[in-house]
Amino acid sequence: METHFRFLFLLLFSLLPSALSQFNISGVLIDCSVNTSYTDNQGLRWLPDSQFITSGVSKNVSTPGLFTTFSTLRSFPYNATRPRKFCYTLSSYRDLNSSRVKRYLIRTSYFFDGPGLPPVFDLIVDGNLWTMVNTTADYLAGSASYYEVVFPARGKTINVCLAGNPNYTKGDPFISSLEFIMLDDSVYNATDFGKKAMGLIARSKFGASGETERYPNDRYNRYWQPFPDQIHAKTSTHNITSSAFWNLPPLDVFNTAIVADKGNPLAFQWPQQVSLQRSTYYVALYFADTLPKSSRNLSVYINGYQFYDGAVTSDGVVVFSPEWILSGLTTLTLAPGSNLNLPPLINAGEVFGLLDLQNLTITRDGMDFFSVMIGWCGIKLYGRL
Ligand SMILES: *[C@@H]1O[C@H](CO)[C@@H](O)[C@H](O)[C@H]1NC(C)=O
Ligand SMILES: *[C@@H]1O[C@H](CO)[C@@H](O)[C@H](O)[C@H]1NC(C)=O
Ligand SMILES: *[C@@H]1O[C@H](CO)[C@@H](O)[C@H](O)[C@H]1NC(C)=O
Ligand SMILES: *[C@@H]1O[C@H](CO)[C@@H](O)[C@H](O)[C@H]1NC(C)=O
Ligand SMILES: *[C@@H]1O[C@H](CO)[C@@H](O)[C@H](O)[C@H]1NC(C)=O
Ligand SMILES: *[C@@H]1O[C@H](CO)[C@@H](O)[C@H](O)[C@H]1NC(C)=O
Ligand SMILES: *[C@@H]1O[C@H](CO)[C@@H](O)[C@H](O)[C@H]1NC(C)=O
Ligand SMILES: *[C@@H]1O[C@H](CO)[C@@H](O)[C@H](O)[C@H]1NC(C)=O
Ligand SMILES: *[C@@H]1O[C@H](CO)[C@@H](O)[C@H](O)[C@H]1NC(C)=O
Ligand SMILES: *[C@@H]1O[C@H](CO)[C@@H](O)[C@H](O)[C@H]1NC(C)=O
Ligand SMILES: *[C@@H]1O[C@H](CO)[C@@H](O)[C@H](O)[C@H]1NC(C)=O
């Protein structure tokens, strides 16, 4: 017999005073190939990459009107005889008094400028194969691409490397920007970062259709992509004002929801058009009643397996499983609870693939390191930022 989860956690909201001040990012944001640091219109400080890497060639992107981070890129020569990896070395913070490893959100972003199709290559973090970078579909759709991982700092530095792979294409690996952001200890803390890292598959704000939710609303500049639904989208009639959720989601993700029709279940595919390889995944779902001082009961099923059955209040609930088995396309079903007056709803969700970490850190360049790579399917998100 198979169980579809090992642990399931439910966190009801307790009231804490809201922090009104803007949070500062701890970490570095690197805009590859710019010559000077600058602050963008969100208030984020971007540094040139010259102090983090010595190899590669700077290129200007000719497409006009791009976000500054996409208007330059660094590209690395692909050598079919001797494929190499090219690494950014990032200093990580170590709290020597704490046994907890600090973990970082690492996001690499890409916008290819031609000619031809974008090169396909590998990303390697501290010797672990993170993902294949294939931006072709996004490029053909006129979009940028990004890949995000939550990775523990196990030494004084973390290496984020691009590596050509003769099995894919012969083009030069390239990168537009690299973000390295320290997360607070409570964020995603159900994951054992001594053994695992988390690769983002989707982070969605249900019922939203506008802009991606990000910094400064999200203090770590996580991207919450709008997940529109013309029929079932609802806006909350009250604002959540305090945040005791361990994952510290931006409170704005609770302002919109997908709400089922009264008395009927609602099923939809999430993440959309992503077929997952059979494995264990971290899934967190966020709920808050759209009405003030209200509460409703509901059930949520993932591929027919019950994920949650209980109450959702105006103050909010997060339900997460650090190890949930998924395979293929994923269907989320919102089913009414015993109180049929208020239909079920959902506000936001995150799903990550779990990446097993190797003990061995590969420091050498060259073909050899490929022999200890571990398999992991690509994770990709769409949208020009
Ligand atoms: C963020 O940085 C600014 C400038 O250094 C500082 O004034 C402010 O207090 C910081 N905010 C927080 C929440 O730490
Ligand atoms: C940065 O400076 C280098 C050397 O001076 C130059 O080749 C490169 O084009 C400059 N890049 C930008 C984006 O100005
Ligand atoms: C990139 O653009 C900057 C100014 O926008 C220019 O100074 C620089 O020479 C360009 N670099 C290359 C490699 O074309
Ligand atoms: C590719 O690598 C081989 C072996 O190290 C070297 O002999 C050759 O010069 C390299 N080719 C280029 C274009 O750098
Ligand atoms: C570590 O603990 C010692 C003794 O409790 C304290 O003096 C020191 O400031 C702490 N260091 C850090 C980085 O918190
Ligand atoms: C290329 O594919 C072959 C066959 O699947 C595999 O043995 C080899 O390790 C792959 N090479 C790289 C660099 O991933
Ligand atoms: C990259 O993506 C494109 C478009 O989805 C696909 O045709 C191609 O086979 C992919 N390349 C690799 C090496 O997987
Ligand atoms: C995660 O963080 C929360 C809030 O600090 C704490 O209450 C909880 O015990 C932590 N869980 C684990 C597994 O460390
Ligand atoms: C929620 O907060 C936003 C931004 O502060 C504000 O525009 C909106 O009117 C608020 N909504 C309600 C229902 O109070
Ligand atoms: C709603 O769910 C809660 C918690 O599961 C339960 O205690 C309560 O009885 C339920 N309410 C109704 C009306 O079924
Ligand atoms: C990794 O290290 C742990 C603890 O030292 C050990 O139990 C485990 O067998 C090692 N795994 C591999 C793949 O070497």
From TrEMBL:
Keywords in alphabetical order: Kinase, Signal, Transferase
The record ties this protein, via InterPro entries, to: Malectin-like_Carb-bd_dom
Q: What is its main location?
A: membrane
Q: Where is the signal peptide?
A: 1-21
Cellular component terms (Gene Ontology): membrane
Its localization reads: Membrane
Bilayer topology reads:
Single-pass membrane protein
Q: Does the keyword Ribonucleoprotein apply?
A: no
Q: Which GO terms describe its molecular function?
A: kinase activity
Question: The Malectin-like domain covers which part of the protein?
Answer: 30-352
> What PANTHER family does the record point to?
OS05G0393100 PROTEIN, OS07G0107800 PROTEIN-RELATED
Name of the protein this chain belongs to: Leucine-rich repeat protein kinase family protein
Q: What is the lineage of its organism?
A: Eukaryota, Viridiplantae, Streptophyta, Embryophyta, Tracheophyta
